# Entry
Amino acid sequence: MSRPPHSLSARRLFGCGPGGAPGSSREDAGRGARLARAGMWIVLLAMAALTVAQTITWLPPNWPREDWPRKDLLSRYRDFVVFMGAMGQLEKTGVLYDTESVNYFLPSSPAYKYPPTFAAVLRALHRLPLHRAMQIMVIALASFLLASLVLALGMMRLRGARALLVAILFLQWRAFWESMAGLQLETALLLLVWLGALLIVIRRASAAGFFVGIAAALKVYPLLLSLFFLPRRRGWGLAAVAAGGVFAALASCLALAPVYWAEYVTRILPRIGGTTLNPVNLSLHAFCARAALLVSGGPEKLREAMLYVQAESPAIAAADLAGKLAFVLLALLLAWFLARAVRRAADMDPARLDLLAYGLAVCFAVFVIPTSWPDYQLLLLVPLVIAIGCARAPAEDRVVWGLIVLASAPGVLLDANSEPFGRHAIAASSARALMPLLLGAALLALLRRTEARSVALPQPRS
# Structure
């Protein structure tokens, strides 16, 4: 049986093998290749064993139980408890968006501010005991991640070492565990984004917008993925985004009255989207504002910055203004550069070009949203796997693999809910904030090459 084109043999991985070292005998080179391949698999299998052990040990103390005191519920799944409280208020008073509560529109305020689509799901779970609803969410979100993994491996046709590496990254990706800490919807969004990627691979790029629209109806920020359709002037893709959003909205109306959508569009959506200088905000805007405050006031002033940007603090207000200006300029420059890069690669195979452009759109969306919480970076698994699948062997593609390692290391090592992240907040936040930029650079490096990739995509019909 022939080896898959993207299989990581020792020769392709390390650049060694028969005839690889000048002056070496064929026998010595072959022995070196076998040793290198064995070492590679030992490392990967050790990482896989560690990943499985960590996953198994996480479940018993975090599996919701009926006898949990409320403080345990809030410490483990605080966001979900807040959402269930909002559903209780909805049942009693008919109010979903409690805009009269203090600081309702500030980022991270303990209130429900998502579209009614998510509320329709939560309302069904509210009829169950809280611990049972939590158990269903844990199972559902973990299933979405595993389904995304299976879809990614099959779509990119990854086998052997690359497949094992991707599986390890999926389960070690800190953004997944950060989303589980609040039972947030990011794994569902990840699956929807991968379904859009699947349509791109089978050369139905415009139809990918349908899943983008559904994702945007659950949480607004995936709507930025619509930018994927602009460089190539795909009007049908934008129409598919609208169709997906309308479909999800109509489905939610089976559980909630349409008036809640009217309230969300007219009263809530125009006022959300603020930002915060808190280190857990990993957006371009917050990164620029923190940098401005660091330059103007030094590390102490940055550490003293309030959780939210407030006008009554002149230093923070000035840093926020500088951050906004830098954000607008850099976002426009980045959008122009990405669109130009995609258009200049027009002679590339259309499906490969669309797949790389889709990954770039994900990087851009996660980076430029005003408030980008750590769990939003779960979507970066899409461009990461695309880069791994499209890159040649590390010995032949050192720049791309170097960018992949630099981008993925913070995503695996730095947990926003851990104590080390808090002690070294500025450095850790900066490392996490730059991940989409590094992944985007890896995809751009692949975009500059027009020759055949290691990933085999379906060929167009003759």
Observations:
- The first helix runs from residue 10 to 14.
- The chain has a mean pLDDT of 82.
- Residues 63-447 form one domain.
- Residues 198 and 384 are 15 Å apart (CA to CA).
